[in-house]
Specification:
- Helices cover 35% and strands 21% of the residues.
- The chain is α+β, with helices and mostly antiparallel strands.
- Strands 1, 2, 3, 4, 5, 6, 14, 15 and 16 form a 9-stranded mixed sheet that branches. Strands 7, 9, 10, 12 and 13 form a 5-stranded antiparallel sheet that branches. A two-stranded antiparallel ribbon has the order 8-11.
- A hairpin with a 5-residue loop joins strand 1 and strand 2.
- It is elongated.
- The model has no long low-confidence stretch (mean pLDDT 97).
């Protein structure tokens, strides 16, 4: 048997698996379109489930379509050490977002199989339903139901734009399971690790192959409506206007200032804007826009919220308009479990990989799993920090490095049978 310290995954096998899965829903520019619960998602699920079974994993499917592959340990009473991510994509998604975490988990199992190594605790590899939230909302739907954030009935009742429900579509593609959400043989996961491309530029900029993820930014999203008065652009003097667009423009700039005041972890984004009546020679009477605030502390988020409300009220009055703010999303900041984070750091150190501490600016399934199991994440670089894009790319050696760290972090918690 190979000594544990010298154990490494098969880089080529991992890469070939990623490339094979990427052919299901492949797009002309080299990306992937495999939206949750479509025929393409079914084909991708079928392929990964077949790989699970070929690797000797016992497969179960829960009542919202989360899929788990279990490798038995030598101790039938031990709680499982798990890993995973998602295989659904954006409409113009890439080959690695989510897919890497699932296939890295599979590669851990294949490596242990190849070397005849049994762990003390069982291992599980999961892929979660509808992480992306492209077709159905909310995002991170399957892991949220697993963690008890959402009820299973509520999730199954959610509909897409065509009126098709999650429950009906799960049944149609054959993934409406009978296992209760959160029901894990032997009890809750002893630990959960998720490997993922960074989806940002930091690791590449610092030339580090491994990111030790200490936590994820909390998120608060808002819908904002600014109401003024439509008026003719010519006859209406500047000082008599109720220009909703002028007020909104100043508010957008304020969002940027508020986030900069919360450096280094403050984020503020206006990504959607709708102008009414949207006519060249009419002063806009109403503008609707989104605000996305993120921060690593709830105190920081609360400060951003308060600053926004005060500043928006001031700017609306300045422009003789009214403003309405509705909060639509709230994710609390997430600090990952110190023991799991230490296991990731220790694995990177032992393997000799350069690494740095990072926080996740995006939401991941690990954020919800964190509420029911000790959790950590491993990031690897992606080219130019680009993700949610067909040209998303990553180096094979970086993917292998992250998978090796995943392997040794999981072994640190699962133990190796004598």
């Amino acid at each position: 048997m190979t000594p544990i310290d010298s154990l490494r995954i098969d880089e080529n096998r991992l890469w070939q698996s990623l490339m094979a899965l990427a052919q299901i829903g492949a797009t002309p520019k080299g990306g992937v379109c495999r939206i949750a619960l479509t025929d393409e998602d079914k084909a991708g699920r079928d392929q990964v489930v077949q790989w699970f079974r070929d690797a000797g994993l016992q497969v179960r499917v829960d009542e919202v379509g989360n899929v788990f592959g279990r490798r038995a340990g030598s101790d039938p009473q031990a709680r499982a050490v798990a890993t995973g991510s998602h295989i659904d994509t954006q409409p113009t998604g890439g080959k690695f977002d989510g897919n890497y975490g699932v296939l890295a988990g599979l590669e851990v199992v294949r490596t242990l199989n190849s070397h005849g190594i049994q762990t003390v605790a069982p291992l599980e590899v999961a892929f979660w339903m509808n992480e992306e939230g492209t077709r159905f909302t909310p995002v991170m739907m399957g892991s949220g139901a697993f963690a008890g954030i959402f009820g299973a009935d509520h999730i199954r009742s959610q509909q897409d734009g065509a009126g098709l429900s999650v429950g009906d579509e799960l049944a149609r593609i054959g993934y409406l399971g009978d296992v209760a959400c959160g029901d894990v043989p032997g009890g809750a996961f002893a630990a959960y690790f998720e490997a993922h491309i960074e989806q940002g530029p930091v690791l590449e900029a610092y030339d580090k192959p491994i990111g030790i993820v200490s936590g994820a930014l909390g998120q608060q999203w808002y819908d904002v409506t600014v109401t003024g008065m439509d008026a003719h652009a010519g006859p209406t003097p500047m000082n008599l206007r109720h220009d909703a667009m002028l007020a909104a423009a100043r508010m957008v700039e304020a969002v940027n200032r508020i986030a900069l005041d919360q450096a280094p972890h403050g984020r503020g984004t206006v990504g959607h804007l709708q102008v009414l009546p949207n006519s060249r020679n009419v002063i806009p009477g109403q503008v609707k826009f989104s605000v996305d605030f993120r921060n690593l502390s709830q105190t920081g988020l609360d400060a951003m919220d308060a600053a926004m409300r005060a500043e928006f009220a001031r700017l609306a009055a300045q422009c003789q308009c009214q403003v309405e703010i509705t909060q639509v999303v709230r994710f609390a900041p997430c600090i990952f479990h110190p023991d799991c984070v230490a296991s990731v750091r220790g694995a990177a150190d032992r393997l000799g990989y350069a690494h740095m501490e990072v926080v996740s600016g995006a939401g991941h399934d690990a954020v919800y799993v964190h509420s029911v199991a000790p959790t950590a994440m491993i990031f690897v670089p992606c080219k130019d920090g680009i993700s949610h894009n067909e040209i998303e790319d990553a180096k094979s050696e970086h993917l292998a490095a992250g998978c090796n760290v995943l392997l040794h972090a999981m072994l640190a918690h699962a133990g190796v049978a004598a």
